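To whoever picks this up:

The nightly regression suite flagged Transport permease protein as changed. Nothing in the input moved, so I suspect the structure step. Input below, exactly as stored in the fixture:
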Amino acid sequence: MTKHFFADTALLLGRSLRHIARSVDTVVTTTIMPIAFMLLFVYVFGGAIESGSDSYVQYLLPGILLITVASGIAYTAFRLFLDMKSGIFERFQSMPIARSSVLWAHVLTSLVANLISLAVVVLVALLMGFRSGASPLAWLAVLGILTLFTLALTWVAVIPGLSAETADGASAFSYPLIFLPFISSAFVPTDTMPGPLRAFADHQPVTSIIDTVRALFAEQPVGTDIWIALAWCLGILALAYLFAMRTYRRKIS
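Regenerated output under the current build:
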């Protein structure tokens, strides 16, 4: 049964990746907005923002990486919506394939596309002067956290992708996620914010993730932030997976 699931997922993943390869503009589009934010904040606002860092791009990049993921997962919901409306899910149900492999193929496609987008954003940051003396182990830790965050948000994206009534509705859910880093430590230290706003920023999911990635890049101790970040990512992933599978079973029953 497990072998059957992996084989079916690999086959459907190939199908989804071919769609991505034929529409490279999807990956390009998801990187344009984060890169535009990075250029705007570094070269227009950077000189007026006190971040405690010699180079503002050093401070800014972790938040931009999360915005990249949030903008990329909208396409997962959109592609799922199109598959639902095209009737291809019903055709898959008539075939001897593992049911959950259909969703996992979309999720893994999202992961691949988002990792490519993240790599492009990091390359642009390097051209803008970002530098890190972090060890290979620290870079792997950053990759692991971003991968986990991408998987968590992608499973969140599956829910509107399956249940939305329109294509715009399927992808619009990502807009609040894109702007969540703006009320966090992504652009300025949270201690510069008014009391209630600071309380929200300090205790929402992305702040601990951003602070962990920033500390890893800067070769500083991550403290308890890494455990809070992992707890948020794993908690969101588990809940989103359960709700997504419940929605999927209801749709195909």
